[in-house]
Each structure stands twice: as C-alpha cells, then as structure tokens.
Amino acid sequence: MAVQTRNDTFAALRDCFATDLAALIGAQAQRGETPNAFIDLVEEVRDVLASSSIGAWQDASEDLDRAAGYLTDALTGVDGDQRSLLAWARTHLRDGIETASRSRAPS
User: Along the 107 residues of the chain, how does pLDDT read in single tens digits?
Assistant: First the structure.
C-alpha cells in the first residue's frame, strides 16, 4: 500500500509541477511517468538555473536541489518518512518555481 501511495503522490506532484518546471527551461514537460523521470526533470531545471548569472535563478536552483533530494529520499527511504519528505519536496518545488518565475523577463 505504501508503494501505491508514494506513486500516487509522485504522479500528483508531476501533474502539478512538470509543466511549470519545463517552461522555465523551454522544454517539453512530458518525459515519462515514473518518479525517476520527474526527479530527472527537477534536476535538469536545477542545473540550468544554477548555471545562470541571475541571482534569483540561482536561489531557485537551491530550492530545486532540496526538492530533488527530498524526492529521492522519499523514493528510496523508509515508508514512515515518505509523507513528510514529499511535503517538503512540494514546498521547495513551489518556492523554486515562484522564485524563478518572478525573475523572468517579460515576454
């Protein structure tokens, strides 16, 4: 049951954040439906933002780095910690996306 809950939560996080993450780097959100594919997307966006000279993007990268760590720990860790790890990941995903989005140049 814990594995199904974890997979459902990863799917919910992916559905909520993948499009916004991909938009930050001008990529397609659809990369696969596995938790690992979502973590890969988070890490790719983190790396792109970290290489920027824009301070806010570097700050956003730090949030995404924390999110990737929490997601990885939730995927590989013990069942009892998954809910809190995924909650922390969600918080850092939201904060990272908001920080990076606020600092984007208007189109």
Answer: 455 556 678 889 999 999 999 999 888 766 678 889 999 999 999 999 999 988 999 999 999 999 999 999 998 886 668 889 999 999 999 999 999 998 764 43
Show contacts of 25-31: CB within 8 Å, 24+ apart: 25/49
Reported in sequence order, the residue ranges of 30-90 that DSSP labels E, i.e. its strands, are: none
- Do the Cβ atoms of 85 and 70 come closer than 8 Å? yes
Please choose, from the candidates 84, 50, 43, 51, the residue with its C-alpha nearest in 3D space to the C-alpha of residue 67: 43
Using alpha carbons only, give the angle 39, 32, 44 rounded to the nearest 5 degrees. 35
- Residue 39, class by beta-carbon neighbours within 10 Å (0-12 exposed, 13-18 middle, 19+ buried)? buried
In terms of phi and psi (left: phi > 0; alpha: psi -120 to 50; beta: otherwise), the region of 26 is left
C-alpha 107, offset from chain centre: 24
